[in-house]
Amino acid sequence: MSRRTTNPIHIPADNDGISVLTVQVPVSESFIQDLVHRHPEALPITEIDPAFLGAVPICRELNTPAGPIDNFLVTPSGLPVIVECKLWRNPQARREVVGQILDYAKELSRWTSADIEREASKRGSGTLVELIRSAGHEVDEAAFHDNLSASLERGRCLLLILGDGIRHGVEAIFEHLQTQGALQFSFGLVEFPIYELTDGGRIAIPSILARSKAEIRHVVELPSGMAFAGNADGLQVAEADEAVRQQSERYQRFWEMFYAHLDLDDPDQPVGRAMKLAYTTFLLPVPDRSCWLTVYREGKGEVGLVLSCSKNGDGAQVIAELIAAQGEALRDELGGTARLNERKSMKGTLTIGDRLDVGDLSDSAGADKAARWLATRTNDFINVLRPAIRSIVADMQETNI
Fold it and tell me: What domain of life is recorded for the organism (predicted)?
């Protein structure tokens, strides 16, 4: 993935000596937060999404129910910018940081500008409009607050992750950016190394590793207990079947139990969240996101997991080559219960999976047994499949060069 270096920021020393760039120095997350707050021009915002031009720092550590936002900025047009500063010495950070910043965006989608104003004031900031005007921008106060509230509600924001030195795992980080409902965010991953100068000063040289805009989707929210019923003449609101609602809640409770037991060895593997569905998925490292591990439960008491792919995309070819090259050996590596199956949904394509019959999943003991087994087998499958798939993908890319 190519990098694009942007404007460096010089942090002078208290002398007039001659400056020569030396080595990268370790810094704290607090140091990076402070640098961003004092020098917002260090952020390569316009290169990621020009709509967020002129973002003004509001405060550090903006408190939210999802946790404190490292740096919060707002444009004169009322578009919020959320910055998460992360040191990359801890490999676990690569998986957690994207989920964390998305949680901030989702939480702020429930806020208004008044909520921002309240929490920012607790951090010693002036009013939002005062801060915007002190940065040299003329804004209409009423229009600004209306626009900010509307942007928050839509999830229209810029999410920036800053790291002191991102060595690897960039593709894995981007695997976490799956569909995020109605959020309309832009995203940027920025390396933010800081070097020491011989005169005692420092220089930050930010570079963009990756950027993306989430697909904008329109979501209609309905009151609890209501659902859409469609026909050729349009959509009508109808009462959701009570049995379906209860089943959905059972699914969610089961997956909450599953994720509580899940402990993955691979720090780069994206994880999902508990949904009101009969399955959950784990995206695997195929560039077009067309391959994943499906973890499921069925009403008859069967739980299992299976390597899956979309009809169109590289995933089907990756699975075919994986099975052809390693089939039986792959199954053996996954343990004696793993099997090569013919899946009708994949039109007879061979794939690999495992399953367990546990009986009544409405029983708490049975559900816990199933969730624990699935959590263990999910970790097993990811440990085996991720490196194998990465190798297949690398071979395919070399062939296509």
Answer: Bacteria
Q: Report the run of H or E that residue 244 belongs to, with start and end.
A: helix 242-261
Distance of CA 330 to the CA centre of its chain: 30
Res 373: pLDDT: 95
* DSSP classification of residue 345: G
CB atoms within 10 A of CB 79: 23
- How far is it, in rounded angstroms, from Cα 282 to Cα 143? 42
pLDDT at 14: 55
Backbone angles phi, psi at 350, to 5 degrees: -70, 140
Q: Which residue has the tokens 């990465």?
A: 390
CA–CA gap between residue 217 and residue 169 (Å, rounded): 28
Written as one string, the DSSP assignment of 148-195 is HHHHHHHT--EEEEEES---S-HHHHHHT----TT---EEEEEE--EE
- Which residues are registered as beta bridge partners of 69? 62
**From 66-75, 271-280, 340-349, the region with the lowest mean pLDDT:** 340-349
Q: Does domain 236-400 have CATH number 3.30.1460?
A: yes
pTM: 0.55
Q: What is the DSSP letter of 52?
A: G
pLDDT of residue 78: 92
- CA-to-CA dists, residue 298 to 107, 278, 322, 343, 386, angstroms: 32, 7, 27, 16, 26
Q: How far apart (Å, rounded) are the C-alpha atoms in residues 266 and 335?
A: 18
Higher-confidence residue of 164 and 149: namely 149
In the numeric block, which tokens belong to residue 29? 């997350």
Residue ranges, comma separated, of all CATH 3.30.1460 domains in the chain are 236-400
From CA 162, how far away is CA 207, in angstroms rounded?
10
* DSSP-derived 3-state class of residue 241: coil
Q: Which range in 19-28, 37-46, 270-279 is most confidently predicted, on average pLDDT? A: 37-46
Rounded to whole angstroms, how far apart are CA atoms 70 and 37? 10
Instruction: List beta partners, residue 83.
Output: 71, 160
Tell me the two tokens of residue 43: 């952020």
